[in-house]
Amino acid sequence: MGVSAALFLAARGVTPILVERHTGISPRLRAKLFYPRTMEAYRAVGAADDIYAVERDRPRSEFAAVVESLSGAEIRRWRLPAADDYSAVSPCQGAMVRQGDAERVLRMRAAADGADLRFGHHFVAWEQTGQRVTARVLDDLGVPYTVEADYLLAADGSASSIREGLGIARSGDHALASSMELTFTADLRPLLDGRGLALAFAEQPGRPFISWTTGQDAGAVSVGYDPATTDPDTAFTPDRSQAIVSEALGLPTSRFRITGARPWRTAAWVADTYRAGRVFLLGDAAHVCPPVGGFGANTGIQDAWNLTTKLVSVLRGDAGERLLDRYEAERRPVAELTVRQAAARSAGARELSAGHGQLLSEAAVAVGYRYPVPVPDPVTPRAEAPLPPADEPERWRGEPGTRLPHLPLAEGTDAGSSTLDLVRGGRHALLIGPQGRTWAQTAQRLDPGHALLDTVVVTPQTLAPGASFAERCGISEDGAILVRPDGVVSWRSTHLTDAPRAALEAALRQAMQR
């Protein structure tokens, strides 16, 4: 999450300092699934194509399966939701890339954009005043030095020392389940060739979960156990560990080598607050959810996207400092929803399709969530039932708090290929129906230099044939919609009002918290 936040800031002209005690990329088999909304954020800062290029260089993997063993018969398989076709709702497809591979791309892009990346440096302590944060750091040779900054973004993991130092509690289940992760090296290519598998569950005692690197030359088998009756240090002897991996893979012990054993616990919790003065929590420091669904990394990256766009607006002087209060108000409810959904899947619904009982679809959870907004939407009748916190992405119609609907732009336009590309440079965008040019004139008078607001009249010629901007965004031909730098709708007006200047000024004040 830290390197994503660094990239998002650097790409918008803010120079962040990233302090990371590790010098290399973690070898752990972490996230593999990046949903389209995450890829949209990377696309906005020029990193998505590089990540897709990594994906194309790896064996295709878009399915999960329950197997007798990895070399045995498949009992059932299903397509991973991140691999679904999202072209109707996004300019981006999901990416099936190991987190470490994506991180290499993000480090390179962040450095190229001017981020100050300090790998091998150890964050020791910090303190804050009303105006600054001062941190004490050890460099890669152990020499201490001091860093002063406007804000501190704590992306230091689930055991966050910064969160603990602030005394911020966590609500939820801190030990949902326990597993032993047995890592190994092996040539899995003969077992996986042509199968398109990204992961597998073995129908064996302990329900082994099998994962592997994108190079298919190493992996891990995670098997559950009950900590109330099992001591992992004594239960998982070398001989038993060899037997578990051998049975899960369906390979003799001569075909693999165990490289490590690590007990870990699945948890489902959310920090009680995301901010303390000039310190903000994001990623695993703010929330942890079970791995089923692949939501964890995506939620953390969206924390970074949301927070950094606000920080850029504040640091540029476009927005008031109160805007930063909206970070927790928006992201914490999303985390609570996501953790609940992941926990429900972990409790036995990991292979169920969407629409069964309390489960939302993965697309609704990872792409179609809605932020709570502080002002009512004049378009949505108040008599209607409250809007849900998440829904299928294609059902949203530009309601404030939702992501701007994707519509393809006409070929050959220099604006990009999607309505999402009309929001750029860390500025807000006022998107106007084809008969609402008075809105554009009003915006020009309010922001003549386009320092914080881009204005686009979306005509039929702007869009690909058959697309209707006004209909898709729930407005009329002379209506307008205000979109934040992170692609989220903050306000809309069905029609041209009698007092457009007053309406737009009020919308901008609310959006900027000025």
The percent range for helix content is: 25-40%
Alpha carbon gyration radius: 24 Å
Mean pLDDT across residues: 91
Question: How many helices in DSSP terms?
Answer: 14
Question: How would you characterize this protein structure?
Answer:
With 514 residues, the chain is α+β, with helices and mostly antiparallel strands. The protein is 28% helix and 24% strand. The protein contains 14 helices and 22 strands. The chain has helices at residues 2-10, 36-44, 48-56, 99-112, 161-166, 189-192, 232-235, 238-249, 296-316, 325-349, 362-366, 437-446, 469-472, 500-512, and strands spanning 17-20, 33-34, 63-67, 74-79, 95-96, 116-119, 122-128, 133-138, 144-149, 152-154, 170-186, 197-202, 209-212, 218-225, 256-271, 275-276, 279-281, 287-288, 428-432, 453-457, 480-483, 489-493. An eight-stranded mixed sheet has the order 4-3-12-13-14-11-15-18. A hairpin with a 5-residue loop joins β13 and β14. α1 packs parallel to α4, α9 packs antiparallel against α10 and α12 packs across α14 (500-512). The longest helix has 25 residues, at 325-349. Residues 349-357 have low confidence and may be disordered.
